[in-house]
Amino acid sequence: MIIRPCDWETYPYVTVIRLNRLTASLRDLAAEKLLEEKWLVAPNLRTGYQWLDTVARSGQPIVNARVMTLQHMALEVASPEMERLGVTFLRGYRAEVIIDRVFTALRREGRGYLSALEGGPGLIERLLQTTRDLRLARVDPGRLDPEHFEVADKGSEIAVLLGLYEEELRNGKLVDYADIIRMAMKRLREDGPGLQEDVILIAPADMLERLEGLERLLWEAVPEARRTLLEVDRPGEERKDGLCDSALLSWVRDPT
Q: Distance between the two ends of the chain, CA-based, in angstroms?
């Protein structure tokens, strides 16, 4: 099978980089806002830097651009409030230790569903993710209705788990990702822009479409004039330059 080149073509003395819609949008923005500080929100740092590298290789200089995740952005904006309150961001193994402590307390009560499970790294990681998701969805433990669960006992124990977790945060002067977002939104809404005057927040449109709860509210709290969405290619949507063979391969998990 012969693959017609699309994303790049090599000539004797020059390599021409063909950009997808996302990197083309980023290139145009970088040219228009060359000197302004730009915060590029990406799913992870590696992906964001790959986008910048692609634009730079296409011939467009990238100046004053920082790559960050939404969590990094929230921490950047919320840090003055954290310092004022004297709180510490809960992350990594420390978060797992707290969830393990909370789960141990839950098992002592012996309610019969989660408490009947044997603890282990996999379970603790899952409970931590569940707690994080509930907090980002603004679920209050006192208003978590067990009847919404297939097994009511499970709902009751998750509500207890969430309440114990929040108590651990208060007692330890700790804040988690949900707290950081709330602090960042408060600063954006009440303390002027909460960003340096020339900062532009950039994110791909499809990533923002997947945000829910507090994460979406954080993005919307940024003044509209300071945030920009980059257009992206969509599955099955024909590009202006047509769907050549190698463009079609971008939708295959393993092109080789």
A: 12
CB–CB of 162/141 below 8 Å? Answer: yes
CA distance 234 to 70: 22
pLDDT in tens, 101-152: 988 888 877 666 777 777 788 889 999 999 999 999 998 888 888 888 887 8
Polymer length in residues for the chain: 256
**Residues in a beta bridge with 88:** 174
Side chain identity at residue 254, one-letter code = D
Q: What is the maximum span of the chain, computed from C-alpha positions, in angstroms?
A: 73
Single-letter residue type at 251: W
Amino acid identity for residue 12 in this structure: P
**Whether 95 contacts 124, CB under 8 Å:** no
Secondary structure of the chain as H, E, C letters: CCCCCCCEEECCCCEEECCCHHHHHHHHHHHHCCCCCEEEECCCHHHHHHHHHHHHHCCCCCCCEEEECHHHHHHHHHHHHHHHHCCEECCHHHHHHHHHHHHHHHHHHCCCCHHHCCCCHHHHHHHHHHHHHHHHCCCCHHHCCHHHCCCHHHHHHHHHHHHHHHHHHHHHCEECHHHHHHHHHHHHHHCCCCCCCCCEEEEEHHHHHCCCHHHHHHHHHCCHHHEEEECCCCCCCCCCCCCCHHHHHCCCCCCC
| Short-list 48, 60, 50, 49, CA closest to 24 | 60
